[in-house]
Queue: 2 jobs
Job 1
Amino acid sequence: MVIGSENWTLTVLSDAPAASESAADIVSNTLLSKPDAAITFPTGATPLGMFDVLAARAARGEIDFSGASIFCLDEYVGVTDEDPNSFTRWLREVLLDRIGIKSDQLHTLPVTADDLFASAGKFEEAISARGGLDLAVLGLGPNGHVGYNEPGSSVDSRTRVITLTPQSRHQASAYWEGSIPIPDQAMTMGVGTLLESKQIVLLVIGEAKAVMLRRTLEEPVSTDVPASLLRTAGSRLTIVADEAAASELSIVHSR
Ligand code: PGA
């Protein structure tokens, strides 16, 4: 089902594998039309199915990431790529190593720099030097965050350090089954950074996200739900959801 509204597109698929496949199609088409695309991928549980599809397609030679640039979306302040709680390390394991991304294709967030503010500015410059992001694939946080843009993040926020909410730290702790301490702060691309991407995909899977997806799409755009700010991207935004995540949406039920 595809619904156009406020100019963005909502695609609802029957289940998680179908939604993962659909999101992977968008990534694949971006690469096919622009082999040197600049892309950011989400962390979290949601994208794992999409990553499997992309890795399988790359292994079969159907898509080629060798010209792509990958920009990391978010990372904890002070962690190194070798730390067990590093999102960059995690992304390497679940996707980047599988699709052959080399270190010179990967732009990591400068979370161990002495001057985090200046370094975040240089990260933004690196995105601009590539002509901006071609594709931002994002997940939806339980509190409405995108990347680590927590509630209150402004529409024009840039890459910066942010203090994590207790809810986000709790969510992150579950990724590592509570065994690894989660830092208080993270560096994240800003909402404004993401909104400048030529294409944005918000991938939302599972019933646990249903209420937050309704708030994201059906309540007024608000910094209380940072994901809702993505709607201002209009036709550059595609939301890909499974039926469970879309189950609270009146725009789906009314059809
Ligand atoms: P999840 O996280 O995929 O693990 O639910 C989404 C997010 O916080 O972006």
Job 2
Amino acid sequence: MQNYKVAIVGAGPAGYFAAQALQNLQTDDLQFSIDMIERLPTPWGLVRSGVAPDHPKIKTVAKVFEKIATAGNFRLFGNVELGTDVSIEQLNEMYDAVVIATGSAVGKKLGIPGEDLPGSISAAHFVPWYNAHPDFADFKIDLNCTTAVVIGAGNVAMDVARMLALEPSELDPTDTADHAIAALKESSIREVVISARRGPEHAAFTSPELRELPKLEHTNVLMAKSDIEAAISRVGDEIEKDTKSNLDAMLLISEKEATNHDRTMKFQFLATPVEFKGAGKVEEVIFQKTGSDETFSIKCGLVITAIGYEAASIPGIPYERGKVVNNEGRVSENLYVVGWAKRGPSGVIGTNKSDAADVMKLLVEDLKGVKNGGDIADILPASKVISQSHWEAINAAEVAAGEPLGKPRVKAVTREELLSLGGI
Ligand code: NAP
């Protein structure tokens, strides 16, 4: 019987699904000892710090992650950063294979004038802020304006716009960070414009997300019927299933009887942002009507760009165009990559399951003799590491704090709080 040691770096969906795939590939003769290394004191990646808190069903996949973590032959090393606490060279010495599953955490930039003005922020900061990510505990966002513009036509733009345009008391029964609920309750924002540079037929929203918008109880959702009809006529009869489903959902939104709530979420299409302007902070966004020279502007005090992500680079790993350089998940000898760090920021959480399973098959094909490297537990101070049982203590404390408030959990925000809940 061969027992191979595999390190998975990153405790998000791609990392857990890689661990699950290895567990499923085990036989009487082939066993794996899996160590998951995560820079935060908490695992679950985007399921904890990305998924919108008003979408609790999506987060139920965390139960699958916990099953994987407690299936045996699995250790969590939370609060341990690759490149700082341990190097890739050390992992290569200690493990038979190393799997990078660190996602894409850096927001892409538009590269237009005024993008760095105060009041212009990336979804890559706003989303972890409202989800209580420790790195954004001190992030400041000024919501003292009536109009916000969200650039991008994907599900992240939609999450961001919904979070800004919801009646904030709707977030009370969710696990939104307390600091974000408090700030959103003080927010003066009443109009959120989601802006797409192309037409509705090219929007990257998915139809379940579009179909839930008309159900918002305290927000007017506006789409111009003429925009959707023009898109339908542009695409004609030979239309892809997903595009048709999206356009059907958008048509329903555009035909919905007008409501008269305080808060409005409005979609605009075929508008390319060319400049953010303002004296010392964002005061307006200048758009060009896509495909023409005509420009127009929207006065606003906040712009959030949600135009995709890139992977942050880790020393010792090759990157190109925001991804780890790889061939079907193979990076170099004994080094693999899965998830967004491998293929870029696309797909839903479940997409990572088949993606990771494919890469783990290659990993198993490539395995040679078992190495006799050391144990990572011997090089990390025990007082630092959040193990699975420490994490279970954090998890239980957060869930218990939520119970009397009718919330799934109250998230601890700072690293200090998290470590102390974990008992270290
Ligand atoms: P995305 O789906 O790729 O959407 C990015 C959007 O940004 C596109 O509309 C794109 O327009 C636009 N864009 C890119 N560069 C731009 C530029 N320079 N100027 C203006 N617009 C620009 O990415 P995402 O929203 O970050 O989502 C990432 C992945 O996570 C997606 O697969 C998404 O479905 C998934 N996700 C799923 C959920 C859910 O299931 N509820 C929630 C959140 C995220 P073009 O098409 O014109 O390039």
